[in-house]
Amino acid sequence: MREVEYGEVRVTEYRGRDDLLSAGLGLAGLAGAPLPFADPLDPTAEELRRRAIQTSWKGIADLGPLGGYGTVYGGVPDVPGREYQTFARIPGARAPHRVLLQLPDHFDKQKRCLVVTASSGSRGIYGAIALAGAWGLPHGCAVAYTDKGKGAGYFDYADDSGVALDGRRAKRGEAELEFQPAAAPPGAGIAIKHMHSGDNPEADWGRHVIQAAQFGLAMLDRAFPHEAPFTPQNTKIIATGLSNGGGAVLQAAGLDREHFFAGVVALEPNVHVLERGRAMYDYATEAAIWLPCALSAEDFVKTPLARGSRGVPLPAWPIRCASLRAQGKLSGNTLTEQAAQARQYLWSRGWTDEAMSTAASTTAFDLWRAIAAGYASSYLRRGATDMPCGFHYAAIGVGGVPGVPGVADPVSRAAWWADGAGIPPGNGIGLFGGMSVSPDPSLAGSECLRALWTGDDHQSQALHASIAATAARLPRGDLPLWVVHGASDGLLPTAFSSEPYVAWLREEGRAPIYWRVPYAQHFDAFLALPGFGEHHVPLLPFGYAALDRLWAHLYEGASWPTDVSTPAAQPRGARALERSMLGLP
């Protein structure tokens, strides 16, 4: 495999009041309020790191009082050690991806272990710490991370600044930046690496993971020169990730022809198989248009986040039904009839009531449109000033007019790297454009994004080609591979992602283990929301359990299971999570 290409390496030590896993906060600190900065206009690199770790934990894990983290499953022990961080490059890529190795002081040289992971969603470098770090570091493994060409290294044209290696803001030319787009006027808004690098990073997720692992091996050589070299032959490399990170490790598995990986555990992966299932862009653009109406059906009256405080559909949702009726896409004359027809349409497209029900959260937060607008720009390799369908990102501005771009609040801008999730809106950045002057203003932009998928012009062809380039390849036959996915996932429904992938592997003679976990959905962090967690169980404990069994196979002589029963999970209800609710076989 190609040697890793990287620049300056930043090495830092974390001991005493700081550590690798929680930045010294412990479980209570991670679950607490966002940490303040001594100088909000100029936070230090260590303050930014601490808050980035806190933000990443809170964005992935259910740390609420009823969630059971640290008591029923998981834990946040103190893990002193070192971090090695740099910008690595895929040959030919315009923008780097950030890579990081966490090396615990108690690294087990007798059981050489390197866990490699990729951030979920479009998160920054610590985006998988609640999975890979929380499991790997206590096992004495080093953990290598990649942001897979995404992250919150936002570039603000207003002051021509981006993010340096240490997470602090820097002007163009002052330091190497995580993302430095082509020059543009100060009014060009804000550029996001995932959407505006011109690289279609999703097509290279597997290469990002492999480069991160190669960087990890190189840093182990540096840390332990008398034990070098560290290679896949003497150091077991375990790949794990969730959501987009899960898709990334499955992409990497498909590139492994040299026994680079010892095993792979993917949670709720965004995985695409050519001519099987459905690409996320396809069903996301569909959901943005149709789900608001379908969720107005009385069948979803008890669905969390599908109804307002008085039990009626959210105000914009019946309007969507009326819009679809006016276009002739629905024929019903009442809201009840229209909602039932929209629901029937989604059934015909492979959606289940279970997936639609939990997708109410994604719909209520307008995430479908936000995801589709960003991904369309990435697939079409657009810049900040020419995103498809008239969308663009800009600061909301302090005290500005709603819906009108402004100038970034300098306090928010200073914290973007720590607080941002990689896909605006959020943290003082808005998604603008793609709107019409009508009772249903967001429909026009959503329909434009949908047309990029359903059309056949040169733009649609380019988008389809970019999505085809993200398809997973077949992993080697002897690779231990475990896929864990929530049966109630409404963001990446199993019918469109994991199930076609697992079926394809089995048809090709592979033997993946697949857990379709009842009552688990996509966002463990949402389980702390009132009325939401009662209906579900967290997915993280099942990922930890799969990793434990992989560890037993690799290091303790346990046979790799060939027939694993599905967990008999039960919803948490109104009380605190108990171990028995997980139903782990």
Structural class: alpha/beta
Strand percentage lies at: 5-15%
| C-alpha-based Rg, rounded | 23 Å
Terminal residue distance? 38 Å
Helix content: 25-40%
What is the number of E strands?
A: 15
How does the major sheet shape up?
9 strands, mixed
The general outline is globular
Ranges where pLDDT stays below 50 over 5 or more residues in a row are none
Strand order of the largest sheet: 1-2-3-5-4-10-11-14-15
Q: Mean of the pLDDT scores?
A: 95
Oligomer: single chain
| Number of helical elements | 18
Organism: Rhodanobacter terrae
Keywords: Hydrolase
InterPro entries: AB_hydrolase_fold, OHBut_olig_hydro_put
GO molecular function: hydrolase activity
Characterise the protein shown here:
This is 3-hydroxybutyrate oligomer hydrolase family protein. One of its GO terms (molecular function) is hydrolase activity. InterPro entries: AB_hydrolase_fold (IPR029058), OHBut_olig_hydro_put (IPR016582). It is a single chain. 33% of the residues lie in helices and 12% in strands. With 585 residues, the chain is an alpha/beta fold. It has a domain at 280-382 and 438-466. β10, α6 and β11 form a beta-alpha-beta unit.
